[in-house]
Specification:
The chain contains 6 helices and 8 strands, in the order E-E-H-E-H-E-E-H-E-E-H-H-H-E. It is α+β, with helices and mostly antiparallel strands. The chain has one domain. It is globular.
């Protein structure tokens, strides 16, 4: 739980945040799809203190325990008490201005210099909701863009993770208001 905790400096306005490792598909697919001698890939997110507290209290355990003569897994109780996103209406969800950042950092050598290439998208959840009319535009808009590219024969049919799509995919996302910033720094 919460392994690999470190501090990472995100672009403004996020700044320095604690992050921890998570098991995420690109950790496995990037080295296979990027033919540049990739040696290390990880994925980190800020640790969720509430999730950590629930885990420490044992509410994520799958093994049943007996309570007043009834055997039940703590996780089943937790899931029964947790509202499902599809069941929530607009009035029951607080739309605070949560800031998010997707960031990829690549370190390598070019012409004898150590460089760090950073590509990121910093955005607010409420801004995406206003712009696209859906809560998780960061999931739905890329799916729509990919479907359009597929219909126009701009991508090969089949199962391809986002990092396997052509670079025009990012350009098309930009046309939908999902823009990315780039920076290159010397190490």
């Amino acid at each position: 739980m919460f392994s690999g905790i470190e501090e990472y400096r995100f672009p403004s306005p996020l700044g320095l945040l604690a992050v921890c490792s998570v098991d995420y598909e690109p950790v496995y697919t990037l080295p296979r799809l990027v033919d540049k001698g990739v040696r290390y890939v990880d994925c980190k997110i800020p640790p969720d203190p509430l999730a950590g507290a629930l885990i420490k209290m044992g509410l994520a355990r799958r093994e049943p325990l007996e309570v007043k003569g009834v055997k039940i897994a703590p996780r089943d109780v937790l899931m029964a008490l947790t509202p499902q996103p599809a069941d929530l209406d607009e009035k029951s969800v607080t739309h605070s201005d949560v800031l998010l950042c997707y960031l990829a950092e690549v370190e390598g050598e070019k012409a004898g210099e150590r460089l760090i290439h950073t590509l990121y998208r910093a955005f607010s959840a409420s801004g995406d909701l206003k712009r696209h009319g859906v809560r998780w535009a960061n999931v739905s808009v890329p799916a729509v863009v990919t479907a359009i590219m597929l219909a126009k024969n701009e991508v090969e049919p089949g199962v391809v993770p986002p990092e396997g799509l052509p670079s025009s995919f990012l350009t098309r996302l930009g046309e939908w208001g999902m823009t990315f910033q780039r920076s290159i720094t010397k190490k």
